[in-house]
Design goal:
The protein is an alpha+beta fold. The chain has two helices and 13 strands. The chain has two domains: 2-91; 150-282, Sandwich (Jelly Rolls), CATH 2.60.120.
């Protein structure tokens, strides 16, 4: 392209020289008006210069045309290079984007694995928590069973002088308010009732003493239902009777004693009449 520009410069100089010659000839023509011979010489010189100028102009036109074509090719090549550079730039950006996308996908995969691990750990923690709760409940149950295994009571009547209770025309609850033993606090000396703290088999016993002028008797009830009785007919001397029973009780079942209808029972300071029971084993 630099050679083409140099050629164009040479032609431009040639044209400039020719134009100068032509102008000089024209001046000679003007001066020739004063001198006819000089005018003829100038005209001849001018006529000789014109063909050269025209030739140079044609060459210049040809060169310019060629230069235009070359310039067009150059512009085309330049645009092609620009497109290639843009494509390279886009390719580089696409490559970088691809690398970043791969990194992002890797991070997303790691994040999903972390989330999955966290969910698994949450599940394990929940299962461990449930297991821990179950074990705690079992430990509490075992502790409670160990504690409730120690259930036993024995009671009599709290009196300051010897007396009899009854006889009465209707069954009446007997309240043994003098407590000898009440391990587990299942017996209530204010109501005379025993409440089962745990499901299991319990053994209960009644011992009754009374004067012989009236029958002596009492009934043992479970939740108000008659289970057993201890009874003895009247006699000319003091009488006594006893009975015992093993019962399967659920938690909250109530065992109590009532005085038999028409019977009486001695409430002596020597505690000859007693009511007691204990847990044989839990179920």
């Amino acid at each position: 392209m630099s050679q083409e520009m140099s050629s164009l410069s040479v032609f431009s100089m040639k044209v400039s020289v020719a134009l100068l010659v032509f102008l000089c000839s024209s001046l000679l023509v003007v001066e020739g008006k004063r001198d006819g011979r000089e005018a003829e010489t100038a005209c001849a010189s001018q006529e000789n210069c014109l063909p050269e100028i025209f030739t140079l102009l044609r060459e210049m036109s040809t060169t310019i045309a060629v230069q235009k074509v070359d310039l067009s090719h150059t512009n085309t090549n330049l645009r092609s290079l620009e497109r290639q550079m843009e494509e390279l730039k886009n390719t580089k950006e696409e490559s970088e984007i691809k690398v970043l996308t791969e990194k992002l996908n890797t991070l997303e995969t790691k994040m999903k694995l972390c989330e999955q691990t966290i969910e698994e750990q949450k599940t394990q923690i929940h299962e461990m928590s449930v297991t821990n709760t179950e074990m705690k409940s079992k430990v509490e149950d075992l502790t409670r069973q160990i504690e409730v295994k120690k259930v036993a009571f024995s009671a009599s009547f709290a009196v300051s002088a010897n007396k009899h209770i009854g006889p009465l025309t209707a069954p009446t609850s007997l309240i043994y308010d003098h407590v000898f033993t009440n391990i587990g606090d299942a017996y209530n000396p204010k109501t005379g009732q025993f409440t089962a703290p745990v499901r299991g088999v319990y053994f209960f016993q009644l011992h009754i003493f009374a004067g012989g002028s009236n029958p002596a008797g009492a009934n043992l009830l479970k939740n108000g239902q008659h289970m057993i009785a201890a009874y003895n007919h009247k006699a000319p001397h003091d009488i006594n009777t006893s009975n015992g029973v093993s019962l399967l009780l659920e938690v909250g079942d109530v065992v109590s004693v009532t005085l038999g209808q028409g019977s009486w029972i001695a409430a002596y300071t020597s505690h000859l009449s007693t009511f007691g029971g204990y847990l044989l084993f839990p179920m």
